[in-house]
Task: structure prediction
Amino acid sequence: MNVSVVKLTIAATCCILAGVAAAQATAGAVIRVDSPAGIASGSNRTEARQTGKFSGINLHAPVQVIVSIGATPSISVSGPADVVPLILTTVSDNVLTIALKDSVIFTKPVKVVITNPSLQAVDISGSGSLNASGISGDSLNLNVSGSGTVVAAGSVKMVNVAIKGSGDVDVRAVQAKALNASVKGSGDLRGYASTSAIVDVTGSGDVRIRGNPPARIVNRSGSGDVIFE
Result:
C-alpha cells in the first residue's frame, strides 16, 4: 500500500511539472534547468554591454547575433527581461565569447547586436546564428559545430570554413579569392571564390560555389554534392 502511494505521488509530481513547463512555454518562458523554474516577465529589455578589443567571436548560446563593421565598438543584448541578464558577453585574448550563465530554455528570441572595427573569426557551437556584413581584410575563418548558422557579406582574400554537424554557412556574398572548406555531416555550404577552391566533404552535406575559380581540388566521401555554379 505504501508503495502505491509513493508511485502516485511521483506521477502526480511529474504531471504538475509538465503542466508548469507547458504553461511557461506558451507564455514565452525562461526555464532554468538546474534551478527552480521561473517565468519571464513578458516585457522586453535592451541592455548595453561594455566591450574590449576583439576580432573573433565565440558563440555558445542559442541567440541571434548581428554584426556590422564600424569604428566605434558596441554590444547590446535584447530579449525578455528575465533572460537578458543570463546572456554573458566577455572578451579575452581578442575574442568575444557569448554564452549562457545557467542552463536555460527560453522560447522568445534573444538578439545580440554588435558593432566592431573588424571580424576575422567566428566559432559557433550549438544552435546559435550569426549574420555579419561589411567584412574586409585578409581572411575570414568560420567554424560551426552543431546546428548553428552563419551568413556573411564583404570582401576578403581567403575564407576558411569548417562545418561539423547540421550547421549551415552562407558566404556567397563574401567576395573571396580563395575558399578552403571542410564539411563533415549534413551541413550545407554556399560560398564564393574567384581564384581557387579546396573542398573536402564527408557525409551528406552539399557545397555550392560561385565565382568559377579556375583552380579546384575536391575530395568527396558520402552522398554530399560539390557544385560549381
Summary: Residues 1-29, 32-41 have pLDDT under 50 and may be disordered. The two ends are 72 Å apart (CA to CA).
